[in-house]
């Protein structure tokens, strides 16, 4: 005869009357979870699951190689035309050459000769200035040699003027006036004398010759030529009183009397 076991509220089994009580059966504990797999194995397994299938050799050969795309250009304010401007040509500067002591001395002598030549040129001593400018041309300073060449050309023009073909009296008179203005008085005297042989009654030739003699410091000769010019045409007296070419001979008494200095001159 089986005895019925009743469970008490406290969880202990009690035997029914007339039987032995059995010990209470403990409930089994929940199974503990197993240790986690190593990370390396988990990653390896996941990589095997997610890895894409390898492409076959035929597909590799058929697929073209992809070129890396260029980076997008940065936005600028100017419109890009697609034409690249030419690069500037860069020329290397020549190396600086050291100036030696003898060359420095030569440049100093060249500078001194040039300054002396300019001084003589301003004093109208063209022959001596020509010699100095020729030496300056042989010096090391090429810029100074070029300036000396310009002065040398002028000196040679003054020393050796071109031959002028004078065909009549007026040509000789005009050329003589040019010589007077450049103070080449001896040459002007020669051309005026030659013109007077062709036209002895031309008052303007006598007047020009009188001015030439006055500039040469010959008051007697200037007086005689100016008197002839006034006798031929009285207006020459008025012209002579205001002409600066006669300023150096106005103190000569006959000239002062001829020009009526100190008394008003009547216009003719």
Low-confidence stretches: 1-19, 40-53, 57-62, 264-268
Average pLDDT rating: 76
Structural class: mainly alpha
Strand percent estimate: under 5%
From the N-terminal CA to the C-terminal CA, the straight-line distance is 192 Å
Characterize the overall form.
Answer: elongated
Major beta sheet, strand line-up: 1-2
Q: Helix-strand pattern, N to C?
A: EEHHHHHHHHHHH
Give Rg in angstroms: 63 Å
Number of strands: 2
Task: Walk me through the structure.
- This protein is mainly alpha-helical.
- Helices cover about 50% and strands about 0% of the residues.
- It has helices at about 40-50, 55-60, 100-120, 125-135, 140-160, 170-180, 185-200, 205-215, 220-230, 235-240, 255-260; strands at about 5, 15.
- A two-stranded antiparallel ribbon has the order 1-2.
- It is elongated, with a radius of gyration of 63 Å.
- The N and C termini lie far apart (about 190 Å).
């Amino acid at each position: 005869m089986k005895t019925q076991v009743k469970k008490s509220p406290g969880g202990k089994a009690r035997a029914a009357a007339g039987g032995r009580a059995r010990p209470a059966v403990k409930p089994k504990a929940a199974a503990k979870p197993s240790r986690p797999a190593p990370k390396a194995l988990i990653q390896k397994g996941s990589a095997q699951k997610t890895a894409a299938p390898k492409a076959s050799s035929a597909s590799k050969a058929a697929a073209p190689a992809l070129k890396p795309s260029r980076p997008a250009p940065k936005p600028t304010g100017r419109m890009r035309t697609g034409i690249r401007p030419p690069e500037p040509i860069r020329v290397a500067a020549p190396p600086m050459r050291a100036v030696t002591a003898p060359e420095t001395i030569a440049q100093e002598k060249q500078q001194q000769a040039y300054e002396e030549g300019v001084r003589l040129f301003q004093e109208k001593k063209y022959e001596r200035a020509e010699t100095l400018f020729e030496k300056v041309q042989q010096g090391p300073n090429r810029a100074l040699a070029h300036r000396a060449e310009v002065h040398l050309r002028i000196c040679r023009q003054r020393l050796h003027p071109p031959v002028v073909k004078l065909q009549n009296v007026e040509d000789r008179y005009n050329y003589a006036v040019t010589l007077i203005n450049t103070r080449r008085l001896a040459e002007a005297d020669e051309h005026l004398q030659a013109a007077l042989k062709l036209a002895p009654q031309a008052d303007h030739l006598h007047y020009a010759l009188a001015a030439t003699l006055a500039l040469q410091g010959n008051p007697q000769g200037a007086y005689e030529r100016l008197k002839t010019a006034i006798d031929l045409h009285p207006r020459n007296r008025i012209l002579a009183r205001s002409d600066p070419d006669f300023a150096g001979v106005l103190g000569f008494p006959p000239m002062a009397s001829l020009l009526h200095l100190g008394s008003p001159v009547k216009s003719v």
